[in-house]
Every structure is written in C-alpha cells, then in structure tokens.
Amino acid sequence: MTPSRAVFLDRDGVLIRTYVRDGVPHPPHDPSEMEILPGVAEAVDRLRDLGLLRIVVTNQPDVARGAQTREAVESMNHALVEGLSLDDVYTCYHDSPDHCACRKPLPGLLLQAAARRGVDLAGSFMVGDRWSDVEAGLAAGCRTFLIHESYSQRGRCRPDFEVPDLAAAVELISRLSSPVSTR
Q: Which of 9, 104, 109, 174 would be 132's cystine partner, CB 3.0–4.6 Å?
C-alpha cells in the first residue's frame, strides 16, 4: 500500500478566526463564536481534490488552564469536520508545564496521525500561524507554511514558505504536488 500524503492544519488562525487581545491570540470560547475564515472551505476542498488527507492538529491549553471546557473544544472540532472536508482532528489539551509529547512545537500529534493513517511525512505539509506549528512540522519531517500574523513569532522558526492565508498555502501545495514538481 502506498503511504498517504497529508496536509496538517492548525485550527485557530488557519481555519477559524482567532481573537487577538494584547497581542495574544485566543480561540473562540464556544461554537457560537466560531467563524470559519474566508476562503477556507474552498481551500480545504482543493486539498481533497489533490488527493491529500486534511488533518487538523491543534493545541488547546485553555482546557488545562480551566478557561475552556473539553466539551466546547470537541463541539467546535466536530462542527469543523462536519462543515469542511476534513479527515480528522487531533487535539492536545495540555499546557506547557505538563511536558507532554503532543503539544506543539513537539511533533506528537503529527506522528500520531501519521501512524494511524499511514502518512508519508516527508511528502506532507504543515500549515500554521505560529512558530510552534512550523517547528512541529519540521520535527515531523514535513514541508512547512507559516501564515504570517502579528503574533506568529516569525523569528523563532524557519518555515519553508510564508503565506498570507490558507488559500495561498494551498496554491503552493498544488504546485508542489504536481507530478512535474521537484522538491
């Protein structure tokens, strides 16, 4: 069986709007606040049409901090899977002091998904809006895209590509995925 290729997508700031307060991005508190960003549905559909798995990998430390419920996060994740052509969502509910292997910038979520779905990580991509997304993708062996935002902490990482949004990342992924493309 040929390994699958995937695009790993961060959730907040890539698929849905974040709420920036004092320069820090925050996820929506509950599904009623969740807003899919413009162009995301079309971009995710295009990834599907390219034959790539679409897997969300998201840190949700507000659950460990007591500022968010696991049920609210799971409800939003479920709504995204139902509303977009996504294959799966992997969520880390830990905070930094927990020292888990799944919290980005560590690659644990990507490695879990790859093992479960038979993903060729070297042929796959990570798209995120923070340095930790890029670092997780690099550690897993993926090509990486940083959606540049004011809070991205760009100086802490070296993405393969910087883009303004998911649609721009998907355009590049489409070119990189074509049979005549070389790495």
A: 104
Amino acid in the structure at residue 61: P
Q: Is position 10 annotated as part of the catalytic site?
A: yes
Q: For 70-129, what is each residue's pLDDT tens digit?
A: 999 999 999 999 999 999 999 999 999 999 999 999 999 999 999 999 999 999 999 999
Domains of the chain as residue ranges with CATH:
6-177 (3.40.50.1000)
Q: Which amino acid is at 155?
A: G
- At 110-120, the pLDDT tens digits run 999 999 999 99
Catalytic hit among 12, 129, 133, 165: 12
Q: Is the dihedral of CA 58, 26, 147, 172 positive or negative?
A: positive
First CA to last CA distance, the chain: 23
Catalytic residue among 10, 129, 133, 165: 10
